[in-house]
Design goal:
Elements (H helix, E strand, L loop, with lengths): L20 H23 L9 H8 L6 H18 L11 H11 L2 H14 L4 E8 L2 E8 L10 E8 L6 H4 L3 H12 L2 H6 L2
Antiparallel strand pairs: 1-2, 1-3
Helix pairs in contact: 1-3, 2-3, 4-5, 5-7
Amino acid sequence: MAFELPNLPYAHDALGPYMSQETLEFHHDKHHQTYVTNLNNLVKDTPLASKSLEDIVTSTYNVADKAGVFNNASQHWNHMQFWEMMKPKGGGAIPGELEKRIKADFGSVDEFKAAFVAKAAGQFGSGWAWLVDNGGKLEVTSTPNGVNPLCFKGQKTLLGCDVWEHSYYIDYRNRRPDYVKAFLDSMVNWENVASRL
């Protein structure tokens, strides 16, 4: 069965002024659609065509002759999470259990946010910043290109922020830290993140 581009869970202009309608139209409708199209073309008539998206990501990670499949599959998976991890009028209070875990593992919510922004801003070139549950401990990580926590045994994805330039350049130009701060303070759907614990 072919993979499909999911609809955004909100209107293209719903995340403004922090993420513009223009950014979402390019990012979701063009970039994400391209990953889906490429993935379908690459797995068509191969044994991978019947696998789940997660299975394709984990079985093609670091497999040289499957790099194209991996890149498009992982970016499809990453973006499916990313759209759900945001909401209009996001940010704000973090649900109790998640906030407790963040304070226990980072010291405070502010220290977590500072660590997340630093990791996202420090990711050289294209990639992602993540909040993961790594065997019971919350950690902030970053990955290059389309690599995601599925690739690492024991890591559960709680939150991901796309730091490819197409995610922020229309709205923030080269100010990646400002984009990541706006993501954490005004776009994150903390209920969705908490549901992943």
